[in-house]
Amino acid sequence: MEPKYIDIEAVVRSKFPKQAAKVPGFIFKFAAWLICQRQMNDIIRELRDCEGEQFAEGMCRILNVSYNIQGEDNIPADGRFIFVSNHPLGAFDGISYINVFGKKYPGKFRVIVNDLLMYIHGLRPVFLPVNTLGRQKREDMEAIQQAYDSPDIQLMSFPAGFCSRFIGGRIQDVEWKKSVITQAIESKRDIIPMYFSGRNSITFYGVEWLRRVFGMKFNIGLVLLPWQMVKTARNKTFGITIGKPIPWQTFTDKQKSATEWAQWLRDECYKMKN
After folding, report:
1. Per-position DSSP letters for 69-104, written without gaps between them
2. Which domain does 193 fall in, by range?
3. Would you state the pLDDT for residue 21?
């Protein structure tokens, strides 16, 4: 299998051709350094014969990442689920869940992610992309709907849609989107809440804080996520706590709106914090 390497300049020119034409070459070189492009491509080269769960497992092995998992017995032997979690790492928590649940549901576990992560070609078979910067492609919308309708595919969602931020004096998710509730009801899937114990570097949160202070629209934190994977996650042990399934019928109670149910679900996940 010919590996597909990460090329930040090619990605920017593909997604933003008009803006990219005005960018000096040294900026692209700096961006390549910032996202650890060389180190990421070294990993891709080493895992060139791997895809999906095997790629995720290989990344965790190369970075020497391990997990302390609690509550695995809360997952029923049968059923169709939406696994939901807080989103502290922004990328590597998703890869971690693929590594863990890919063994339990080989070939049947999918994670809904920012479409920029699709440039990690080895993980494409287990990713369902969402465009957070523009219009969603029809084929991507259809792929997500097919996954929800599938009788045997298990889904993983990060309802915050963005990596955790420094909010109210602590690192936490922004408000969760109500779509996780509406999708659970429409697909008749019970929700399994989870809590991922981990954090990015102080630099990451500092940059994000400055971005908000100065009102910058560009999500620079997204650019820093590969650095967080390659540098910050290395040699770490992360905690994963799995809660009991919540029947989808729970969310049909009209005493709460879908938005309110989403925040209630967010609170339930944070109650599992170790």
Report:
1. EE-GGGS-SS--EEEEE--SSSSHHHHHHHHHHHHH
2. 8-270
3. 81
